[in-house]
Design a protein that fits this description.
about 325 residues, two-stranded antiparallel ribbon, alpha/beta, globular, 13 helices, TIM Barrel, 10 strands
């Protein structure tokens, strides 16, 4: 009986200590941050696939983004299923065009390659490559090699991003595969050792270490206002110190000193397809005020580069809904750099 009482006491005290630590961390994460990195540079992720999906002329959208907003940093995904619809038959004309237009304007590019890249369904695996795991993996490595050999001398490409949040279980994707990711990174470094490689992970749902130790530059996502079935809309109850704390973790456990915000929420998070909802519903999780707040929040984290997520939606509001306010707010934010 004595050892049972000792065991119960141990469990109780352990639970109390853990509870106290959790509360202390929560308090620390939400202590207001007064300083911010005003030198942080803003960019965007642009998806020609998503622009087309919401009814836009994607080339018009891309040029408006570059020429009206004067954006100088862009993260571009290469969609495997669109670039190699049939095995061994490649069409990179859309990527070529985007890179050429960026080069004309001295825009820096993060080129994101792999099977998992930005925008739904997350993984862009051609049907012909999905017939088996072995076929998919071998074909993926060949595709990465072909893309990098094609573009490795392009001066506008500043970084390669290998996969997008490869350890996050999300989207219509195979399960996370650290061994495959390592093979992709090793291949990328062999083909081009002149550019740094970004590996990204979820800002709120991961501790970052696995991704950060593989990266030359670690990229975090950052979402503030989200929707969850059964909960509705809510804001993550964490301040910028949460991300500073996690940066400390990767500095210590992954020896990673280089980090950026690869994806900052700047469009709605709702139930279902964004543009199918009413504007009133969309504006519950993103509007002009929230856009400004999110940029300030990201600058308070302190990372040197911040890539906003949602430029296609801003343009959709402007040209299809006659609502240019968010586009204009974004222009102001980019002009303030």
């Amino acid at each position: 009986m004595k050892w049972i009482r000792k065991g119960i006491k141990f469990i109780i005290w352990t639970t109390v200590i853990i509870f106290i630590l959790v509360i202390a961390l929560f308090i620390y994460f939400n202590i207001p941050v007064r300083d911010q990195n005003d030198r942080a540079k803003l960019g965007v992720t642009f998806s020609y696939r998503y622009a087309g999906d919401i009814g836009l002329n994607w080339k018009e959208t891309y040029l408006a983004m570059l020429d009206d907003l004067k954006i100088k940093k862009v993260r571009l995904p290469v969609y495997w299923d669109l670039s190699e619809k049939k095995e061994g038959q490649f069409d990179f004309s859309d990527i070529d065009w985007q890179l050429q237009e960026a080069r004309k304007r001295n825009v820096e590019i993060i080129l994101t390659i792999g099977q998992k890249v930005p925008r739904w369904p997350e993984c862009a695996i051609p049907a012909w490559a999905a017939i088996s795991d072995q076929k998919r993996k071998e074909s993926l490595l060949k595709f990465i090699s072909i893309v990098m050999e094609r573009y490795k001398n392009n001066p506008e490409i500043k970084y390669w991003q290998i996969e997008n949040e490869p350890f996050l279980i999300f989207g219509i994707c195979p399960k996370p595969d650290a061994d495959l990711l390592d093979r992709e990174i090793l291949l990328a470094k062999k083909i081009d050792n002149t550019k740094k490689i970004i590996v990204s992970d979820s800002g709120e749902l991961s501790v970052w270490v696995r991704a950060a130790r593989r990266a030359d530059v670690f990229g975090t996502t950052m979402y503030r206002n989200i929707y969850k079935d059964g909960w509705g809309y809510y804001t993550y109850p964490i301040g910028p110190r949460f991300f500073r704390f996690k940066y400390g973790l990767i500095s210590l456990f992954a020896e990673q000193k280089n980090a950026i915000v690869a994806e900052l929420q700047a469009e709605p998070w709702i139930a279902g397809w964004t543009t199918n909802a009413s504007l009133e519903e969309q504006f519950k999780s993103m509007n002009e005020e929230k856009l400004r707040e999110n940029v300030i929040y990201a600058k308070q984290v302190g990372f040197p580069e911040i890539y906003l997520w949602g430029v296609e939606w801003w343009y959709w509001l402007k040209v299809q809904k006659n609502y240019p306010a968010i586009w204009n707010t974004a222009r102001e934010l980019f002009n303030q750099q």
